[in-house]
Amino acid sequence: MPVSTQKLQEGIKAARGFASADISSNVDSTVFHDVSGFREVAAIASCAALAAAGTLTLTLLQASDAAGTGKKVLGTARVATTDLVATSVLANIVSEAVAAMDHANGFTFVGARVKASAAVAGEVVLMLSGARYNPQSQYVAA
């Protein structure tokens, strides 16, 4: 495999999903990011320590604009469960999808929904990659 001289920052654009003080019930992105110029998007969710067997659920959402108009589930929810014997563990989870987006009906924006099994702080970061048209200008920080 050839060695690439491409820097990580030239191949991935990070976009802030959201941070919340309490994710014990479903918390959705308040801003959705346009991914029409990218081939892939991954959401990375993390939360504060959870008790043994605690869960963190991450679901990607698609919408027709940055405000989340018409938001609906994209792909399948991912669930992370902490170790059954641990007393407190940070939970992290990754979900990715673009191919399943409803482009035909104008859904080109992505956000996320996250939920934890307890009242803890949590956050989501979106990682966009595979710029389709003009990589250098598309990877400017959001």
What is the total tally of β strands? 9
Biggest sheet, open or closed, and with what strands and sense?
A: 5 strands, antiparallel
CATH class, named Mainly Beta
Shape: elongated
Radius of gyration: 16 Å
So how many helices? 2
> What is the subunit organization of this protein?
single chain
In terms of per-residue confidence, which ranges show pLDDT below 50 for 5 or more consecutive residues?
Answer: none
N to C succession of SSEs = HEEEEEEEEEH
CATH architecture annotation name: Sandwich
Q: What structural class do you assign from the helix and strand content?
A: mainly beta
Task: Kindly estimate the percentage of residues that lie in beta strands according to DSSP.
Answer: over 45%
Fold-level CATH name: Jelly Rolls
Separation of the first and last Cα atoms: 32 Å
Arithmetic mean of pLDDT: 78
> Domains counted in the coordinates: how many?
1
Helix proportion: under 10%
Write up what this structure looks like:
The chain has a single domain (12-137), classed as Jelly Rolls (Sandwich). It has 142 residues and is mostly beta strands. Helices cover 6% and strands 50% of the residues. The chain is elongated and about 45 Å long. The mean pLDDT is 78. The strands form two sheets. Strands 2, 3, 5, 6 and 8 form a five-stranded antiparallel β-sheet that branches.
Keywords:
142 residues, mainly beta, Jelly Rolls, five-stranded antiparallel β-sheet
